[in-house]
Amino acid sequence: MKWIQSAARPERQADGAILWDGVVIDISNVYNELRLRKEAEASLAKEREFLNVIIHNITDGIVVCDASGKLTLFNNATREFHGLPVESLPAEQWAEHFSLYQPDGQTPLSITEIPLFRALEGEIVENAEMVIAPKHGSTRILLASGQAIFDPLGNKVGAVVVMRDISDRKKVELALQQKSLDLEHALNNLQNAQLQIVQSEKMSALGNLVAGVAHEMNNPLGFIAASLKQAKPTFGDIIEHLKLYQSSLPNASDEIKNHAEEIDLDYSLEDLPKMIDSMTMACDRLKNISTSLRTFSRADKDYKVPFNIRQGIDSTILILKHRLKANEQRPAIEVITDYSTFPQVECFPGQLNQVFMNILANAIDALDESNANRSFEEIKLNPNRITIKTSLENGSVKITIADNGKGMTEEVKQKIFDHLFTTKAVGNGTGLGLAIARQIIVEKHGGQIIVESEVGKGTKFVIQLPLSASARKS
Ligand code: ADP
Ligand code: MG
Q1: Would you say residue 117 lies in a domain?
Q2: Less Cβ around it within 10 Å: N or C end of the chain?
Q3: What does the pLDDT average to over 106-129?
C-alpha cells in the first residue's frame, strides 16, 4: 500500500474542453514519520501521567524548583504538609508561606536554612530535621534530604528535596526517652535508698554497740571515780597516822628501819597522792571518751533536734584518735580547730557526725597517701595537718575541713560525690562516703557541700547548713 498526494489543475483547451493537469506524489514516508511521532507523543504522555500518579500519591513530600528558585513541582504530600494548595512561589516568598521551624519547634527557619534553598545552593542535604506548623493543618516533624539537579551538560537546572513525616516515629522516640528518664530516676531513687539503708544500718548497728559499751563503761567508771575521790583523803589520813607513829616512836627497831628503806617509804609517801591524782585525771578522760562515744553514736530521732556542732566534731576527732596519732611512718597528724560560737543547729546529729567522720577519714587517707614517698623527717618538716573551722555566715553555719594531703585531679573532683566512685583499692574504699555525705547535707538538711582541691597541695570541703530545720524537711 502506498500513500499518495495528488494535485491537479484544470486547464481550458482551445477547443473549450477542460483538461486536468496534475501530479501524483508518493507520500508514504512522510506519513509514516508523522504517525510514529504521534505514537511516541502518546506513550510519553502516558509515562508522564504514570509518573505524576506516583509523585502525587507517594506519602513523602517532593518539591522541585528550577535554577531561579521557582517551584516547578510540589506534590500532594507537600501540599498537605503545608496545609494549603500552594502554587508556584518565587524563592523570596518561601519563608513567608512555609511555617518551618528548627527541631525545637520555636525558632523559625530563615530562608537560607530551608532545605530546598540549601540544595539549590549546592549543598547535599541529608536528613535535616525540621518542624512544619502550618496555620491550616497539623504540626509535623519532617526529615528532609535533597540536592541540586544538573542537565546532561552539567548545568545546574534546579534542586529537589524529599521530605518524610517522622512525627509518629518521634513520638515513640520521645516516649522511649521519657521511659529511660523515668528508669534513670527510679535507679537514682534506689541508689539513694541504698545509701540511706547502708548508712542507717551501719550507724544503728555501730551506734548501738558503741552506745552500749559507753553506757556499760559508765558504772565501773563512776565507781572508780567515787573510790578515788574517797581514797585520797583516806590515804592522807593513813599517812598522817603513820607520821604520828614515827614521831612517837623515835627509836624504831632495825626491822622497821630496814623495811622502810627496802620499800623506799619516803618516796612512796610523796608519790602516792600524785598517783591518785593521775588516776583521777585518767578517770576523767575515760569519762570524756564515754560521753563523746555517746554523743557520736547517738541515735537520731525522726525529726531534727538542736545540736552543738562543735561537740559533734570533737567527738568525731576523738573516735578517729587512733588514726591520727604518730606511727612508724609519720608523726601525729596535727588537728587544728577554730570554732566560732553560734547557736545549736537543728539537725539529725547522728547523720552529721557520720558526715564529719567520712570527710575526716578521707582526709587521713589523703594524708597517708601523700606520705608515701616522704621520709619521717621530711614529713616532720612539713607536717600532716587537718584544719577545721566553723563560722556563722548569713544565717547559715559554715564548716570547713581542709587537709594538706595529696589533693585530687579535676577529673576525680568531678566524680567524688558519685555513688560507688573510689580511687582506693578494694577493701580500702567503698566509694560511698561522700555520696552519703552529700545526701545527708543536701537532701536531709537542705545544705550545701562543695570541694576545692589542688593536686599535691590539699583538699578543702566546705559545708553550709541552715541554722533552722524549717529550711527543708526531709
Ligand atoms: P572512698 O573513701 O571509699 O574512696 P569516698 O566517697 O569517701 O569513697 O571518696 C571518694 C573519692 O574521693 C576517694 O576515693 C578519693 O579519691 C577522693 N577524695 C575524697 N576526699 C579526699 C581528700 N580529702 N583528698 C583527696 N581525695 C579525696
Ligand atoms: Mg571515704
Answers
A1: yes
A2: N
A3: 92
Q: Output the CA 198–ligand 1 centroid distance in Å.
A: 18
CATH number, domain with residue 308: 3.30.565.10
Atom of ligand 1 nearest to the CA of 417: 6
pLDDT digits (tens, 9 = 90+) for 20-31: 888 888 888 888
pLDDT tens across 235-250, in order? 999 999 999 998 998 8
Cell numbers at residue 56, please? 502525587
Q: Is the CB of 211 under 6 A from ligand 1?
A: no
How many angstroms separate the alpha carbon of residue 459 from the centre of ligand 1? 10
Last residue of a domain, one of 146, 165, 184: 165
Which domain, by its residues, includes 187? 174-299
Structural domain ending residue among the three candidates 148, 165, 182: 165
CA of 112 to the centre of ligand 1 (A): 52
The structural domain count of the chain equals 3
Mutating to test ligand 1, I would choose from 323, 420, 430, 434 the residue with most ligand atoms within 8 A of its C-beta, which is 434
Q: Is the CB of 452 under 6 A from ligand 1?
A: no
Does residue 412 have its Cβ closer than 6 Å to ligand 1?
Answer: yes
Is the same domain home to 136 and 252?
A: no
Grid coordinates standing for 117?
534553598
My answer on whether 250 and 353 are in the same domain is no
433 shares a domain with 363: yes
Distance 416 CA to ligand 1 centre (A): 6
pLDDT of residue 430: 83
77 part of a folded domain: yes
Average pLDDT over residues 111-130: 93
d(CA 102, CA 2): 69
Which one has a higher pLDDT value, 319 or 336? 336
**Same domain flag for 246 and 98:** no
